């Protein structure tokens, strides 16, 4: 009976601890300059991070990092380099089966080309399609969204000269074949010539009868900006739009997201809401420039990531808190936290913060070290001993340490050179208080993994 009671206490306490949001901060980078641009959540609960790299040879490359909710790197892939071309990813989205699509660009000396591809969950290419118009100013593909039938819808533009270009939206099937195409308008009200018309962000949603695709973009003349939001049906015919009511705005739309049953649209430092009929707005607000990402929270408020600050706002856009860290992209986690990506000290920066905007600095730096695996401790929860296992593919300098929830090191288990193979270490926490702790593995002075564990006395 006593054993059963102790077991029940452990389970109740473990559940109590599991409701706490484990937060952390990390940096990834080995080259001259890296920065995180976008993070998306995959259907297996992991995340993809789209990064830019400038190497020591001043080459612009793509770096994609897959991480789990703890920020542990699952795999990485670098693309480009070896020449004068610059490689970059403009947008990513994921399919229900775990694969994902990307909108990629390459800048050459004579122009640019756009590329769209579908990839497996480990970035093995399934198909790709190139959009080229060289040696003119070229083609760009800047927004993409996955569709329910395993295809994708993309938005791009043909840059015809320094003064004008033509935008388009296209639907591809699951094999990359074009099934619908729509050229964006070059005139407004049948009289105003629009030399610039580009969709900046795309989203798919279930419609009343068929799938619909929501787009925000901008028409622009030398004298005036005409931002818009449009909804296309599956054939890419226009379903509804809102342009006229935005003609008094003097800034470009850059992105949007869905909050409850309405849209939140942002551009530069300004943001406002709009209902699903594209007609009624109840608030608008100005924050520190520039706004990059908006995500609805688990308590029906929303986070906003800008270049220099991160905010939490309520439904009426009143500021609940603001924090002095910026981000280029946000993604929610299952435990109520939020991941933010950006750049810090010329490295890719990732943090996980809680509902109050707080995070702890547990992992300062994560190098691109492959060939290791850090396993979950067993037993967990534990009292007072547990075993931590890890594997190494080479002979390396290893440090294994224990940290509390503030990021303070409370024990050092290993700090020596070790041979390749499997290793395990026993940890006795008898001198510590009950709570959540982290164990961190470093290889050659670079943090490569960490996990949380629960100590119950």
Topology:
Blueprint: H1 2-18, E1 24-28, E2 33-41, E3 47-54, E4 60-67, E5 73-80, E6 86-94, E7 100-108, E8 111-119, E9 125-131, E10 139-146, E11 152-159, E12 165-172, E13 178-183, E14 187-188, E15 192-193, E16 196-206, E17 211-220, E18 225-232, E19 238-242, E20 255-259, E21 262-267, E22 270-275, E23 284-286, E24 291-296, E25 302-306, E26 310-313, E27 319-323, E28 329-332, E29 338-344, E30 347-353, E31 372-374, E32 385-392, E33 396-403, E34 409-418, E35 421-428, E36 435-443, E37 446-455
Antiparallel strand pairs: 1-30, 2-3, 3-4, 4-5, 6-7, 7-8, 8-9, 10-11, 11-12, 12-13, 14-15, 16-17, 17-18, 18-19, 20-21, 21-22, 22-23, 24-25, 25-26, 26-27, 28-29, 29-30, 31-32, 32-35, 33-34, 33-36, 36-37
